[in-house]
């Protein structure tokens, strides 16, 4: 079998010999006999299934027999190096290993919290505690006339055009890939088209009167607010997903902290600062 041939080649590698010899020396110096269980690597159906599954996820097809043999040989190589590295203590004081093990422990700690479904009462309590976080954006209906880039000349032009609009005259403005009128628009919509500064200014402008110039990411505009709807109090039915996401994040953080505190009680932490 190709796998057996690969295993034989693996065992002939000088680095493997070095690691095995080092492990034996480490064991003798530490007074611990080699654990025969650590020297046995079993490639069972579960291992092969996981290897084939990862291959399929990457290539969207099943591996051939030769590819499967290669996957198994590479997995055995990983196990040999991994176990010998542990025996030599190469994982000690390795920040990458420490952080990865911490993440695995934290993942275990939050598993139950992330799968639990919060009650409506718990979600409503979060809304009541911070209603502004979940309130819908105030909606605004407005007209705008685009005057071009923000230049001194166009600002002077804006004054004249604004006077005409306030007299009831028609001003066409310059063509631009933006609507001349937006109906019941939220902050995300206006920010996406005109920018955040323009959206903030919309909240300050008077209703029913042409005003300007108002700057945007595109340039200068004359704006008339037709209608502004105040933000409605948040309702659980509309914001459930957002609130539930926040609940899960909070529950996970709480679970991680509680698990850490429980484990920490089993340790005697000594901090020796330099004098």
Question: What key attributes describe this structure?
Answer:
275 residues; alpha+beta; 3 domains; 11 helices; elongated
Which helices and strands appear, and what pairs or packs with what?
Elements (H helix, E strand, L loop, with lengths): L1 H10 L2 H17 L14 H15 L5 H23 L7 H21 L4 H10 L1 H4 L4 E10 L3 H15 L14 E5 L1 H8 L1 H7 L7 E6 L4 E10 L6 H29 L11
Antiparallel strand pairs: 1-2, 1-4, 3-4
Helix pairs in contact: 1-4, 2-4, 5-11, 6-11, 9-10
Description:
It is a single chain. The chain has 275 residues and is α+β, with helices and mostly antiparallel strands. It folds into 3 domains: 91 residues, no CATH class; 85 residues, no CATH class; 93 residues, Chitinase A, domain 3 (Roll). The chain is 58% helix and 11% strand. The protein has 11 helices and 4 strands. It has a 4-stranded antiparallel beta sheet. Helix 5 packs across helix 11, helix 6 crosses helix 11 and helix 9 packs across helix 10. It starts with a helix and ends in an 11-residue tail after the last helix. 12% of the residues are buried.
């Amino acid at each position: 079998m190709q796998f057996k041939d690969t295993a034989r080649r693996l065992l002939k590698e000088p680095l493997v010999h070095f690691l095995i010899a080092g492990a034996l020396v480490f064991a003798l110096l530490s007074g611990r006999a080699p654990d025969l269980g650590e020297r046995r690597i079993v490639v069972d159906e579960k291992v092969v299934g996981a290897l084939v599954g990862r291959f399929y996820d990457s290539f969207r097809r099943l591996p051939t027999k030769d590819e499967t043999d290669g996957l198994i040989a590479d997995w055995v190589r990983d196990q040999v190096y991994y176990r010998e590295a542990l025996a030599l203590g190469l994982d000690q004081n390795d920040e990458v290993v420490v952080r990865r093990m911490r993440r695995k422990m934290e993942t275990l700690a939050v598993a139950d919290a992330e799968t639990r479904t919060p009650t409506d009462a718990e979600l409503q309590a979060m809304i009541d505690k911070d209603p502004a976080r979940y309130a819908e954006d105030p909606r605004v209906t407005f007209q705008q006339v685009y005057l071009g880039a923000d230049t001194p000349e166009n600002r002077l032009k804006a004054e004249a055009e604004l006077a005409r609009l306030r007299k009831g005259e028609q001003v066409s403005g310059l063509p631009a890939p933006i609507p001349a009128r937006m109906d019941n628009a939220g902050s995300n919509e206006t920010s996406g088209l005109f920018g955040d500064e323009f959206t903030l200014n919309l909240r300050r402008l008077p209703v029913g009167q042409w005003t300007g110039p108002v700057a945007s990411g595109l340039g200068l505009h004359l704006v008339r607010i037709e209608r502004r709807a105040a933000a409605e109090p948040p309702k659980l039915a509309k914001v459930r997903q957002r609130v539930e996401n926040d609940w899960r994040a909070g529950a996970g953080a709480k679970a991680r902290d509680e698990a850490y505190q429980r484990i920490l009680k089993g340790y005697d932490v000594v901090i020796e600062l330099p004098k």
